[in-house]
Amino acid sequence: MSGLRGILYRSLHQTAWLTLLGMSLAGLPQTALSNPFEYKLANGLRIIVKEDRRAPTAVHMVWYHAGSMDEHNGTTGVAHLLEHMMFKGTPSVGAGEFSRLVAAAGGRDNAFTSKDYTAYFQQIPKQKLAQMMRLEADRMHHLTLDPKEYAQEIKVVMEERRLRTDDQPQARLFEQLTATAFQAHPYRTPVVGWMNDLENMTVRDARAWYERWYAPNNAFVVVVGDVDHREVFQLAEKHYGPIRPHTLPERKPQIEPAQDGIRRLTVKAPAELPVVALAYKTPVLRDVEKDTEPYALQMLAAVLDGHDAARFTRSLVREQRLAVSAGTSYDAISRGPGLFYLVGSPSEGKTRAELEAGFRAELMRIASEGVTAEELVRARAQLVASQIYKRDSMFAQAMEIGQLETAGIPYTAETRILEKLQAVTAEQVREVVKKYFRDDRLTVAELDPQPLPKTSRKSTISTRH
């Protein structure tokens, strides 16, 4: 990160900056603290509006509390498949017409499915918001799911799996790593689904998923942009209000059993470089006020990776020359259990085992010696900057709200999360390393590179909606 310059003057960021500078929020006028605004329709649909007047545009997003973790064996990938089918028409909007209408309005649209949720968005001129709501409300309860369209789209989804997973060695590695790290929790299955399930899926499976989860009382709408929240609420009443709610399936706890020891796997695939990936089971954020460990883990990730002076780049890449690349990945916001990843490729002449030992040695050093004050200051600045910079983008602001809400974290806690991150101490970072980075929480995956094919397979099917 290049620092925090260039943002201070923006009034929309006032509360975050006062927090960053150690000032109190109590003295702010109420109007500065009331944005975003929220309204709940009688059918259970929540409307969250964040006013941002910097450009005459708006982001409109519909989030469904349904992702791949809600699937069952035999129908993995159905959440993602239904996302594709949502663009295939209703009685009033033909197949493929949704995106054409958005483009004609001067906007862009797309959708994405994760383990936790499915979301749809449009970025449009603000005066086109009513049209977007009408289109989204229409497909929320009038989706056609034509068998002929399904027969074509399932081929697209299978090709997407081939292109993005089967033909990508690192994607295959992480798919197998996750499937090994989790034995009971549905996070073990890939979002795109297993190929055999896709091959045997039917339009009836897609319809059952749609009827089970696509309801106003299982969704919320986020609008960020140059809008008046009262007008947005009125539009929501008009377009979404008439949709009837329905009883949702019971969600049962799905607790991953305790791991009894280190797990290892090797994936052989055509690739240029070997890869080593270590995944440790770690907690995620559940209670913004009471939790401390997820914040310390985020700080640890920033100490190890993310800038030229970070430990992995400095020690493993430059000084020891153990790796050509080394990094981390940790997401504190999720519905299910968490994993903290260490990933790298060994340098020429170094083995995967040597790089794994190098990763472990860096963790052991933190467990015994802790992190320095300088490292903590730099990591804190990096994390705070990344949070603040999100507010420069209307889309990023809408994403932040949606991801927090789908994980069960109130979007109103955004500033408090920033404060808690800033309060992390060196001792807390050291303690999470000592507590969670142990062999009985570890899964190690290695990519064993095989000779590359002389010619690569080319797709003839577009995976774009």
UniProtKB/TrEMBL annotation:
Names of the cofactor(s): Zn(2+)
Domain Peptidase M16 C-terminal stretches: 201-383
Pfam families found in the cross-reference section: Peptidase_M16, Peptidase_M16_C
Domain Peptidase M16 N-terminal: residue ranges: 47-191
UniProt cross-references to InterPro entries, sorted A to Z: Metalloenz_LuxS/M16, MPP/UQCRC_Complex, Pept_M16_N, Pept_M16_Zn_BS, Peptidase_M16_C
Membrane-spanning ranges: none
Similarity comment: family membership: Belongs to the peptidase M16 family.
Protein's name according to its UniProt entry: Pitrilysin family protein
The organism's taxonomic lineage, starting at the top: Bacteria, Pseudomonadati, Pseudomonadota, Betaproteobacteria, Rhodocyclales
